[in-house]
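queue> pop job 88
queue> type: inverse folding (structure -> sequence)
queue> payload:
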């Protein structure tokens, strides 16, 4: 999974931007899914929900006032509920598109570099959207499939203002999730 975390800009109360940063991290994920499919000739329609635990975190050092600050953003868990539609290219291979709602546990913070305590920290559940596609193939057992899919997840932007200063940071949290799966159909 690639966790695309962006601290887009920071500014004083006068609105003049001090700095900006963009950073991307890579992480693993583990989880499960449930779903239901309907088939009409070569077309397949379905609903899916999945839950994933992950530890996607990335930090970036910036010096907006000649004082080093460290920005960190993290995605701890992700749940999606999606519709999907696909076409059977062969009797056992499905190509599909999918999209729906995404919910994730996100932490955004900045701290003075070296400080054990963040100057500003926001830990919350964010709701956004997801879209993507993939391929699913029945293997020799008629009830087992292997699946590869990619999803773009956008959990929105968050603005955090410092408690002791007028320094404001905006974080944009999005991810590209690539995953492989083994499904049991009954």
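queue> result:
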């Amino acid at each position: 999974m690639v966790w695309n975390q962006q601290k887009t800009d920071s500014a004083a109360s006068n609105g003049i931007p001090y700095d900006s940063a963009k950073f991307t991290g890579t992480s693993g994920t583990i989880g499960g899914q449930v779903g239901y499919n309907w088939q009409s000739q070569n077309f397949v329609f379905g609903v899916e929900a999945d839950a994933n635990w992950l530890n996607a975190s990335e930090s970036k050092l910036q010096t907006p006032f000649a004082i080093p600050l460290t920005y960190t953003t993290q995605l701890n868990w992700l749940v999606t509920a999606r519709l999907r539609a696909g076409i059977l290219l062969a009797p056992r291979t499905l190509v599909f598109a999918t999209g729906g709602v995404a919910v994730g546990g996100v932490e955004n913070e900045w701290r003075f570099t070296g400080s054990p305590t963040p100057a500003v920290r926001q830990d919350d559940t964010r709701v956004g959207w997801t879209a993507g596609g993939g391929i699913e193939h029945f293997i020799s057992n008629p009830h087992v499939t292997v699946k590869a899919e990619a999803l773009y997840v956008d959990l929105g932007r968050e603005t955090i203002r410092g408690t002791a200063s007028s320094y404001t940071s905006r974080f944009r949290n999005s991810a590209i999730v690539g995953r492989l799966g083994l499904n049991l159909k009954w």
